[in-house]
Amino acid sequence: MDEEFVQSIRDDFLNGKPVVVIDEEREIEADFVFPAELMDERITEFFVRYGKGLFCVVGPEENLLKRGFFRLPSNYGANYFVPIDWGTGTGISTIERATTCNKISDETTTLQDFKYPGHVTLIGAKEFTTRRGHSESSVELVRLLGFKPFSCIVEILDETGNSHNLEYVKDLAKHFKLKVITINQIWKLYVKHEKLIEVKAVARLPTEYGEFEIYAFDNKLDGKEHVAIVRKWPDQSIPLVRIHSECFTGDTLSSLRCDCGSQLSSALKRIAENGGILIYLRQEGRGIGLTNKIKAYSLQDKGIDTYEANVKLGFKPDERDYAAAYQILKSLGVQRIVLLTNNPEKVKQLEDFGISVERTERLFGRLTEHNKFYLKTKMVRFNHLLEGIEGLI
Ligand SMILES: Nc1nc2c(ncn2[C@@H]2O[C@H](COP(=O)(O)OP(=O)(O)OP(=O)(O)O)[C@@H](O)[C@H]2O)c(=O)[nH]1
Ligand SMILES: [Mg+2]
Ligand SMILES: [Mg+2]
Ligand SMILES: [Zn+2]
After folding, report:
1. Is pLDDT of 380 > 90?
2. CA distances in angstroms from 107 to 66, 135, 224, listed in the order given
3. ipTM of the complex
4. Which residue, by CA, sits nearest to atom 31 of ligand 1?
5. Any residues with CB less than 8 A from the CB of 280 and at least 6 apart, and which?
6. Which of these, 56, 106, 199, 393, could form a disulfide with 121 (CB 3.0-4.6 Å)?
7. Active-site residue set
8. pTM score, two decimals?
9. How would you label 236-248 residue by residue, b for 16+ Cβ within 10 Å and e otherwise?
10. Least confident of 184-193, 216-225, 369-378, 384-393
11. Three-state secondary-structure class, residue 322
């Protein structure tokens, strides 16, 4: 997403305008969001009048716990803390609620400086990598924009009180000229700007293809054991990069149902010759895992294609993302690459994170009687650039 748009949200905050944050995946709801440190009487009144949901202030849970704020008992995992008030009034007026939000973002305050239970709902945001709700995304958004990591949020309800009416939300945003951003977009910004993967161990790896180094990582992004296999490339040149998703059946068992195994070996060969990086991502079966891939194979044995098989099992045709690959490239200090792939989606996602893919080189796997229909499906339904494979069409 473009940085100019993101900065314009910062300007809006400074000019007293909230942003609308849409959750398209978990709750299908939208909230107004505003930095707690800038909250005032007027914006609080706007939140209550046009948002109409639950008015909350959110901060990182670790920070709140450290300052003495405590969680309410919960039987479903919600992270509500004791509601609070600042000052000596009743706490409910918009000026009082705004001040309570300002004071929460002042980290010198502790629970004892507030009255409780009060009129402002306090929520602890989890790590964004473990939960992607309005609480976490709003805290990260204001933090990424240079504000203290405390946000005010309220759900937006329509005229009938329905919280899931995103058409209404979009019209409302247009009416008040408010920017709209999705949690997914904030997540991508977060991945782009944070350092979530770091090199943890490096060792020599002689292989049949040649000498490499293998890198293991400390991974706060998704906790998976991705690896990179690196062959030093000439100074000043752009490294050849292969981003390969795990395929246990193809890579390890030499299955002929797909082209993965032969792609892996020709990628290693080309990288051994030219220098470059192979990133091995642990997202088996286009992100659905091995057992589900076998279920998908079973459906494909009955005649449906690999795209429909995923859908039939309740998944997207392709569940993968390349956030980890981006973070690994960043940890290796690589920003410009030549990518070995036939898959335009890989290029698009890496470019969105700011990697410049100078060019791609095709990487054709071996065509067999067993993978012909599979490869045709990839070409037709996933737009893979497989036109050059002899015998496929
Ligand atoms: N769900 C599902 N996954 C499959 C199937 N066949 C292969 N895969 C997975 O598809 C992925 C292929 O990964 P890659 O080779 O890196 O990516 P690609 O989309 O083929 O793109 P390029 O090879 O870069 O052109 C692996 O995770 C395989 O396990 C299948 O029939 N169903
Ligand atoms: Mg909500
Ligand atoms: Mg492939
Ligand atoms: Zn495969």
Report:
1. no
2. 10, 18, 34
3. 0.97
4. 306
5. 226, 227, 228, 229, 244, 246
6. 56
7. 318, 320
8. 0.92
9. eebbbbbbbbbbe
10. 384-393
11. coil
**Which ligand 1 atom is the nearest neighbour of the CA of 315?**
1
Cα–ligand 4 centroid distance for 393 (angstroms): 20
Is there an atom of ligand 1 within 6 Å of 286 CB? yes
Which atom of ligand 1 is nearest to 341's Cα?
A: 24
320 Cβ below 6 A of ligand 1 = no
Q: Mind listing the domains of the chain with CATH numbers?
A: 3-192 (3.90.870.10), 196-283+320-381 (3.40.50.10990)
Sign of CA dihedral 140, 318, 230, 220: positive
Angstrom CA distances, 17 to 149, 157, 278, stand at: 18, 18, 45
**Mean pLDDT, to the nearest integer, of 161-186?**
97
Ligand 1, atom 3: closest residue by C-alpha:
285
Q: Give the integer Cα–Cα distance in Å for 190 and 73.
A: 30
Q: Is the CB of 9 under 6 A from ligand 1?
A: no
Confidence of residue 267 (pLDDT cuts 50, 70, 90): very high
Closest by Cα among 111, 99, 126 to 67: 111
Q: Which ligand 1 atom sits closest to the C-alpha of 288?
A: 1
Q: Report whether residue 119 contacts ligand 1, using a CB cutoff of 6 Å.
A: no
**Ligand 1 test: best mutation among 242, 243, 244, 247, most atoms within 8 Å of CB?**
247
- If you average pLDDT over every residue of the chain, what do you get? 96
Helix pair angle (134-144, 3-14), 10° resolution = 90
